[in-house]
Amino acid sequence: MAKPILLSVDDDPDVLRAIERDLRSHYGDRYRVLSANSPNSGLDVLRQLRLRNDGVALLLADQRMPQMDGVNFLSEAMQIYPEAKRALLTAYADTSAAIGAINQANIHYFFMKPWDPPQENLYPALDDLLDDWQASFRPAYDGIRVLGTRWHPRSYELRDFLARNHVPFQWIDIDATANDPETQRLLAALGDEVSLPVVLFPDGTKLLEGTFTQVAAKVGLRTQAQTDFYDLAIIGGGPAGLAAAVYGASEGLKTVMVEREAPGGQAGLSSRIENYLGFPTGLSGADLARRAVVQAQRFGVEILAPQEVVGLRVDGPYRILKLADGADISCHALMIASGVQWRRMDVPGMDRLQGAGVYYGGGASEAMACKGEIVYIVGGANSAGQAAMHFSNYAEKVVMLVRGKSLAATMSQYLIDQIEQTPKIQLWANASIKEVHGASRLEEISVLCSDTNKVERVPATSLFIFIGALPRTDWMAGTIERDDKGFLLTGPDLMHDGKYPKGWPLERDPFLLETNIPGVFAVGDVRHGSVKRVASGVGEGSVAVQFIHQYLSKV
Ligand SMILES: Cc1cc2nc3c(=O)[nH]c(=O)nc-3n(C[C@H](O)[C@H](O)[C@H](O)COP(=O)(O)OP(=O)(O)OC[C@H]3O[C@@H](n4cnc5c(N)ncnc54)[C@H](O)[C@@H]3O)c2cc1C
């Protein structure tokens, strides 16, 4: 934790130097001693310190300063740091004026100039003030803070991005904490012009409406490759990509993994994976992702995130990826593990309110905020069931909207059993969303009940949608062969009547997980015919590395 601060303010450089010297010699081991040569620069320093969440123990100001006298400086400083002890330095002639102002500015003490010897005239009184301050001092949070409003889509995206990348942060909802003096002081320190959300870093810097790439750079995530050639490049950091990265790098391949959002993929959104081998009580997707990332990094995998692959071309033995920032990465073997993304729901109001009460996927960062509320979940598959169980820990009630008559056809029995044993979860069968309403945030939903053919309109603040997913592979069209839904064809699926795929240049069949381009493999959910499970993605990602070795031995 950073040392608390003692700030002295004086326009006379000699006096300022002397007080600084005396403070440092006596308190320098426990406090940081700062000085300002005018009241205005003193106030600027305090605003910066407030944004950094630093503790200020003492403000010591000379009474006679031309811009603003010490009493007025301390009054203003009190708005920024009310908990700091405030002391005045006065000349003998100003004593009575200073005493008169003490009550008005809530000043704790005044010292007479000169204060020599400080052992008698300065330290005893300051020791007393600082002991008093220490007794009530609670160290402030010294990590990243995000200020915003819960219903602002950009605030949601930012929180979700940090949470999924396992970056610890403190979320300050300025609506929910509008009466909290700490929030008021932070907003005052940011000034009137600020547009939210704002990310405040412990070093005092702030990012206003920063892009994910800027935020990533500040928190130490890497988005640019260290070199331009790798043995193995992997697109996507879900379970399949992470497994390929661990196996590839552990077997000596120079490996880079490019991930558009956050390592973990869809699995990272899962609140509890209960069917993954070796974890009898289940584990959260975030936990699985965090462990896999550490493992991959330990083997030397370079992880670029957030970074997106937007193009692919082949040049002889090289497979060349175009990244969203314009850079190229070339490799000998490429693994496409780009998974699937949530299908959008096409009903009126949905796009407008996305991030402002309407969310696709887990919205893990939102669960706590839903405390005491009614949460609506759309979908009847396992992902929706897991989310319902997760939200039932926080919400007052969770309503699952499912199109069918029951969950039996779409959900695993173990989850159905859990849901039935959770009184907070209510099933609304034969129901589909018709429209969502609200000016700047979700306020109501209209639900079509197929058994009665009536539309019911009910109040709602949070709607989480889990209605299946599709691969986003259009950018590979024309290079990699796909099925009619966009899933990638591999191995035997590429062969027609025993013939090689079009343009196939080799005298062998494509390997099991190889696409129509030699050395380019597809694994996990993005692959045509794959089993959409964490374990199968992990299995494919690791098995494909064997084929990569075989491929590389002939390049
Ligand atoms: C909420 C939820 C709960 C689930 N629960 C379970 C469960 O309990 N048990 C189970 O077995 N399975 C579960 N699943 C399914 C499981 O998570 C998936 O089958 C698995 O994650 C697929 O892994 P993947 O690596 O193939 O793809 P994904 O997990 O989809 O990962 C693909 C990654 O690629 C990235 N990407 C895509 N395109 C690009 C690009 N152009 N450039 C860079 N990166 C890109 C994406 O951002 C994503 O991170 C669940 C899924 C969800 C959504």
Estimated radius of gyration:
30 Å
Q: Count the DSSP helices.
A: 14
Low-confidence stretches are: none
Helix content: 25-40%
* Number of E strands: 26
Proportion of β residues? Answer: 15-25%
Backbone structural class: alpha/beta
Query: Average pLDDT value?
Result: 93
* Small molecules in complex: flavin-adenine dinucleotide
Largest pleated sheet? 7 strands, mixed
Give a written overview of the molecule.
- The strands form 6 sheets. Strands 10, 11, 12, 13, 14, 15 and 26 form a 7-stranded mixed sheet that branches.
- The mean pLDDT is 93.
- The chain is built from 14 helices and 26 strands.
- 29% of the residues lie in helices and 23% in strands.
- The protein has helices spanning 13-27, 39-52, 70-80, 95-105, 118-121, 123-136, 153-164, 181-190, 212-219, 239-250, 285-298, 382-391, 413-420, 534-552, and strands spanning 5-9, 32-36, 56-62, 85-90, 109-112, 144-148, 169-173, 198-200, 206-208, 229-235, 255-258, 302-304, 309-315, 318-323, 328-336, 341-342, 358-360, 374-378, 397-401, 425-428, 431-437, 444-449, 454-459, 462-465, 469-470, 520-522.
- It is α/β, with parallel strands linked by helices.
